[in-house]
Amino acid sequence: MKPNHTQDFPDFIYDLTPGFTPVIGGDYLKEDYVFIDLSANNRDLLRLEVASSEAFSMFIDEFLKNRNAKAAYGGYNELRTLYNRSELFNNNKEANRNIHIGLDIWVPAYTDILSPLDGSIHSFRDNDNFGDYGPTIILEHSQNDRTFYTLYGHLSRASLETLAVGDRVRAGDKIAELGDFHENGDYAPHLHFQIMESMQGNIGDYPGVIKKEDQDNYLQNCPDPNLLLKI
């Protein structure tokens, strides 16, 4: 894969917003968020039955309660063992696909999802494999004569019902709602948010979990989403 990227892309993303930029609707403030480590280094996960979306939801709820927080976030460039349960990431062809390159935000199902910037609907799809994104929306943005894309995964199926490619959205518009485990790829409710400089031919989908040997190429095309959101 030959990425279409430039070295200043991360700085460009950082400069688009002056401060905390909501992608979660409701009354969430910056101070309501807390960082969560879901990497292979988190020993608390060893006690968790990660194959169970219900058990993982309870784990997230307890984590937030213990920290008096409303939302958890994290996961960019994070090596995770959570994907071992899914043949999508754990098969002969895709073995060792376990590095997460989006930002996850853990909030309740059916929470509103907002566009952080002006844009339009590039594509959408229900990626309905076990462990996949489930319903997914990709927005196209043109800012300062530059085009790039943002991805929103683990949505509700109802979020896709009235969409059309090319529909315009404004910064702060509601574009979707989170799905529950029945429709979001069988995960505890959360948003997978990712930035791509180039879609590289993908429609309604873009890899959010990659192999170590592909890491450098993908990270050059997909900068840390928190450069934009500034949580």
From TrEMBL:
It holds the Pfam family Peptidase_M23. Residues 99-197 form the M23ase beta-sheet core domain. Keywords: Signal. The keyword Signal applies. GO terms for molecular function: metalloendopeptidase activity. InterPro entries: Cell_wall_metabolism_enzyme, Dup_hybrid_motif, M23ase_b-sheet_dom. PANTHER family: L-ALA--D-GLU ENDOPEPTIDASE (PTHR21666:SF289), PEPTIDASE-RELATED (PTHR21666). This is Peptidoglycan DD-metalloendopeptidase family protein. It comes from Christiangramia sabulilitoris. The lineage of its organism: Bacteria, Pseudomonadati, Bacteroidota, Flavobacteriia, Flavobacteriales.
